[in-house]
Amino acid sequence: MLKDAIKKILVTEDEIITKSRELGEILTTEYQGKNPLMVAILKGSVPFFAELTKRIDTHIEMDFMVVSSYHGGTSSSGEVKMIKDLDTSVEGRDIVIVEDIIDTGRTLLYLKELLLHRKANSVKIVTLVDKPEGRVVSIDADYVGFSLPNEFLVGFGLDYDENYRNLPYIGVLKEEIYQS
Ligand code: PRP
Ligand code: MN
Ligand code: MG
């Protein structure tokens, strides 16, 4: 079973749902009448994007980008690759980037600069998890679900080598899984 690979649970499914409801209420107020473009950064943000957007009670649009910086290992390669771009023009739009985690910050710095360069009216970042100790570039999310220590986290979108994204909570992976 998947849970046999988990050393401890850091954030439960109930805590994620409660936090998503809180963030959804904040975004509902902030983006009333603005028809923001909510951008999910695939693949990690998929479970949180689904949880968060259904808590927003005003018009939004959705679009998707695929970027990748981790190529199978446990640490960032330092290079962000765009694999699929948006379908929607961002010029003049209010953009909300939705991420599962901000670690080194490279992915979000790249994305925020790209969208501002394309003349978005505003770009805000919502992330389920922040790992502040991991930062190597200067960028912060506007809204953070949970600030967590620098451990190898999986679940609710977070993967190890493409696995464990489907765990309904966030946990720490046992060392023996990635050391073997
Ligand atoms: C992970 C995660 C974030 C990014 C955060 O994505 O989902 O997008 O890395 O790391 P950073 O702050 O150090 O840039 P990944 O590249 O592993 O792709 P994935 O979402 O498909 O797992
Ligand atoms: Mn990602
Ligand atoms: Mg990944």
TrEMBL record:
The gene is hpt. It is found in: Cytoplasm. The keyword RNA-binding does not apply. This is Hypoxanthine phosphoribosyltransferase. One of its GO terms (cellular component) is cytosol. Its EC number is 2.4.2.8. One of its GO terms (molecular function) is magnesium ion binding. Pathway: Purine metabolism; GMP biosynthesis via salvage pathway; GMP from guanine: step 1/1; Purine metabolism; IMP biosynthesis via salvage pathway; IMP from hypoxanthine: step 1/1. Signal peptide: none annotated. Its cofactor is Mg(2+).
